[in-house]
Amino acid sequence: MPTKNITGTTQQASATPARTWVTIALCFMVALLEGWDLQAPGIAAQGMTAVFGLDQMAIGWVFSIGIFGLLPGALMGGRLADKFGRKILLIMAVAIFGLFSVATVYAWNLSTLLIARLLTGIGLGMALPNLIALTSEAVGERMRGFAVSLMYCGVPLGAALAATVGIAGFEETWKIVFIVGGITPLMIIPMLAFYLPESAAFQSQRNQSGQSEASATAWRNLFSDGMAAPTLMLWSSYFFTLFVVYMLINWLPSLLVEQGMTSADASWVMFSFQIGAVVGTLALGALIGRLPAMALAVLIYLGIFSALIALALAGQLTSMMTAGFMVGLFATGGQCVLYALAPMFYHTRLRATGVGTAVAVGRLGAMGGPLVAGQMLAVGAGTVGVMVATGPGILIAGCAVFKLLKGISPTGTEGNQEAFSTISANGKG
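^ 3-(3-hydroxy-phenyl)propionate transporter MhpT, sequence as received from the core. Prediction below:
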């Protein structure tokens, strides 16, 4: 018999524990592959530079064009998922980023390389809002943050696995990382088609209101009924946090090589970075709602800034690996907190749109990070200068996350909206 959940939508009894764990496991698998493909350009940078004769600005564009593709991908993936369903959009996304990751290997000049990376990014962008929506809607409200954290730790873990290709030092590393990152997603599509259940919350919402009554007004609804403040705060925190994270994912291996490290040693630092990200994703995600808002915001963003300074000043492989671990713990772990927060503020009918829009805005920061770093390096700012320049953005993101955490209510999504509106009206937080 249908039952009402705390967000006001009807969920079917078919949302069993087995169905829940199958959803989380399959979404984790896709997140693992997404992490691999997001890290792939950083690992392949030296090889692509040699093959295509790229300078720092050109390789910066290779990094950023893929991240730019994440933006329209996230917007389309979120909005279309609220209209047609999370499952079908996720399968389409996996097919797109798998195909064009393989196509990267067959690029014959810079232009075709950029096109392949752009289309790969569109597929990756389409996937993430649906991974978050499927996972968050598969569990109860109290478990939502932990479930999203558990799923999302697949992203840094996949990136760590990609780094092992660089550690191994294969002759054609740059090709291998893209081939594995492309063929594996294509191989799991049948598994997603047969075993991934559609979100019960989405099915109930569609049964109640037809083909998503909110589809035509979804974006407008992100700023109505007290939602403008949390939406803008989410956008700010996503933008500046992803600015730092993607600058590191893309530029750190090249920066370390330029400082005299071997490619294998640089890959070890990236491996440490991604292992720290796995630990941070699980640990910081588990602290949502348990630590006071100020304590968690300060922990994340002071930790990011301190770890970046430590990484810039480290001189030995051991100290660089330690600093890299801490950067991954706080930067990617903080990013996971954002992904866990977003579903808490949006109703089922526009959850994928809300999450997708926030992810898209974050991708603007992710695109800007590598470009700004490339420009600063080109004018001689150096590694320390790049790291210090992230300070203002980290401060803004920390303040936004604090405000969002103050708005969380244990009563569920509608309660979170009401609590946030009250805080905003009273000028508190």
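Residues 1-14, 212-216, 409-429 have pLDDT under 50 and may be disordered.
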